[in-house]
Amino acid sequence: MQKILNVSAIKNGTVIDHISPNVLFKVIAILELDLCSDMVTIGNNLESKQVHKKGIVKIENRFFHDNEVDKIALIAPSAKLNVIKDYKVVEKRNVSIPTKIDAIAKCFNPKCITNFEDVTTHFAVVSTEPLALKCHYCEKITFGDQLELK
């Protein structure tokens, strides 16, 4: 049986694979890939052996920092990152939700000091399923469906 690629290979960059189709465009938005000047290939509702359908994003010449990987994990916790160099996968990594979230999420509480002062947000992850973050300042819980990333 011949293997056929649905999405073309990239020479150098990062592939974000196994994104749930319902959050694919959120991942694209939080990473601001619409502003990327290099090639970005997006595939959605692709067949998957592990899950029924998946999304994938290939970004040429882009490698992610830890805070960007944390953003991906908050939106798409089942995603996998593949770092590509010279058309070869040199690193595979599952994203994981960290125990602390700093400076990348907004507090859901409109009265929280972080929403009207120049204060960096800090959250402790209370639960990953469902996602629940506890604000360091006001101690309110922000749930995944309320989550707004910076």
Describe the structure.
The chain is mainly beta. It has 2 domains: 13-94, Aspartate carbamoyltransferase regulatory subunit, N-terminal domain (Alpha-Beta Plaits), CATH 3.30.70; 100-146, Aspartate carbamoyltransferase regulatory subunit, C-terminal domain (SH3 type barrels), CATH 2.30.30. It is 11% helix and 36% strand. It is built from 2 helices and 9 strands. The chain has helices spanning 24-30, 66-75; strands at residues 13-19, 40-47, 53-60, 80-85, 88-94, 100-102, 122-128, 131-135, 141-143. A 5-stranded antiparallel sheet has the order 2-3-1-4-5, with no helix packed on it. Strands 6-7-8-9 form a 4-stranded antiparallel sheet, with helices on one face. Strand 2 (40-47) and strand 3 (53-60) form a beta hairpin.
